[in-house]
Design a protein that fits this description.
About 30% of the residues lie in helices and about 20% in strands. The chain is an alpha/beta fold and about 280 residues long. It has 2 domains: about 100 residues, Quinone Oxidoreductase, Chain A, domain 1, CATH 3.90.180.10; about 130 residues, Rossmann fold. The protein has a 6-stranded parallel β-sheet, with helices on both faces. It has a 3-stranded antiparallel β-sheet with strand order 1-2-5. Helix 5 links the parallel strand 7 and strand 8. Helix 3 packs across helix 4. The longest helix is centred in the N-terminal third of the chain and has 12 residues. It binds zinc ion (ZN). Zinc ion binds next to helix 1.
Length: about 280
């Protein structure tokens, strides 16, 4: 969520002022479990999200939040700033692996998180290959210059195409933003030896895999990423430094009274044509 500071409690020490445009981290963390104490509050034992687990919601005209979770956005427009939260999800996932300019990243899925992963990976100097089957999402990935190459794994052999694009080596790093078992297997197979796969997607079903065949041979690494922690400030700086225009990912702007018909319904029934629907309060 993005918004403007309306008031600051007397006992809060901050450089921010009333009227400043800001974004808020939506995560709720306990602050005293081992992960929180280590600074990894996205791994909190009782982690929740504002609006899902309590503390009011983001569809409110006013909300009270902890000042530690508020970040100034400078001259980033408020509408684009609403994208900083999913942007930070991608930023965190990429920070878990040591990506370098000139490497090739393979992103499974050109949905909202996949596209934002592509934006960040491109900004960090990587070649981005996306795997996607929806024509609308393929078009978006190419039209927005988020992907250098888009491969449809139902039409082409993903492994062979990635090898062609990487001089036979395979992708240095891969990100799963789909959450389907078949995609996870494909991404692992297209990784180079000792490459890393980061699972950003929410998998709702258990998966079956041959650990020796898929990870032992080639010494591949797989890990998960959840939310963000200490990422917003750097993510905002990257957007500002690289003049990243997030407006291309806003696919509609609606009033709160239209949220079911023009918000939830299209996201449910026509997901492939939507990335972020902004609700103005
Ligand atoms: Zn905690």
């Amino acid at each position: 969520m993005s918004g403007t500071i309306e008031a600051i409690a007397d006992d809060v020490e901050t450089d921010m002022k009333v009227g400043d445009p800001v974004v808020v981290e939506s995560e709720m963390a306990c602050g005293h479990c081992p992960a929180c104490k280590a600074g990894n509050y996205n791994d909190c034992e009782v982690m929740g999200f504002i609006g899902v687990n309590g503390w009011g919601g983001e569809l409110s005209e006013h909300i009270v939040v902890d000042a530690r979770r508020v970040y100034p956005i400078g001259d980033i427009p408020l509408d684009q700033a609403a994208m900083i939260e999913p942007f930070a999800v991608g930023y965190h996932a990429i920070r878990l692996v040591d990506v370098q300019p000139g490497q090739t990243a393979l992103v499974g899925g050109a949905g909202p998180i996949g596209l934002l992963l592509g934006v960040i990976l491109k900004a960090k100097g990587l070649k981005v290959i996306m795997s996607e089957i929806s024509q609308a999402r393929k078009d978006k990935a190419l039209d927005s210059h988020v992907a250098d190459v888009v491969i449809d794994p139902t039409k082409d052999d993903l492994l062979e195409r990635v090898k062609e694009e990487t001089d036979g080596k395979g992708a240095d790093v891969a990100f799963d933003s789909v959450g389907a078992e078949s995609v996870m297997h494909q991404l692992l197979s297209a990784l180079k030896a000792q490459g890393h796969l980061i699972i950003v997607a929410l998998h709702v079903r258990p998966v079956t895999m041959n650990l020796t065949k898929e990870m032992g041979f080639g010494e591949k690494f797989m890990g998960g990423s959840m939310g963000y922690a200490n990422d917003h400030a750097d993510a905002i700086k990257l957007i500002q430094d690289r003049h990243i225009d997030l407006s291309t990912f806003i696919t509609d702007r609606i009033k709160v009274e239209d949220i079911v018909e023009k918000g939830f319904r299209p996201l449910h029934e026509d997901a492939e044509h939507h990335i972020k629907i902004l609700v103005e309060m």
